[in-house]
Amino acid sequence: MSTSVPRATGPYHIMMWCCGAFSAITFGLMSVLVTLDVLLRNLNIDLIPASVEITEYMLMIATFIAAPWLLYQGGHIRIDVVVNVLPRSLQRLLGLLSNALGFFVCGVLAWQSWTVLQDSHHQGSVVFKELIFPEWWLSLPLLIGSALLTLEFLRRLFNDFSRNEVA
Length: 167
Prior knowledge:
The chain has helices at 11-42, 51-73, 88-123, 139-162, and strands at residues 126-128, 132-134. By secondary structure, the protein is mainly alpha-helical.
């Protein structure tokens, strides 16, 4: 199983880099917003009444958009204590199986996200809290993230097969 960080260039690499950059910027802005909110609340100034809600949405968006970039970089969580003591051919097979399972699960999640987004859009559902907006907007980060994860797992499967890593 290869865990090296891709050194590729091109549109796909740029797209993955943009996912990471967007998430990093979002996490940074979120920390600024939380800090500002705490400071203003301690001064009894309620300048940003929707700050907690905005922070929740930023956290969701940044997390789902960062996931494909993390997988692309090999920065995802791997528990390979047992895998490392197995024969190389079995390690390759397990890598192939885990990429295939990831492809399947993320594909189902992307499809389900698309279905939920369409249903919410057709029903005209609205989120009505401090902020008011169409509910289907909340499905977008999950749809984008899971679709890009599906694509990244497919790329990894293709790379496994093209390197003849299958035992």
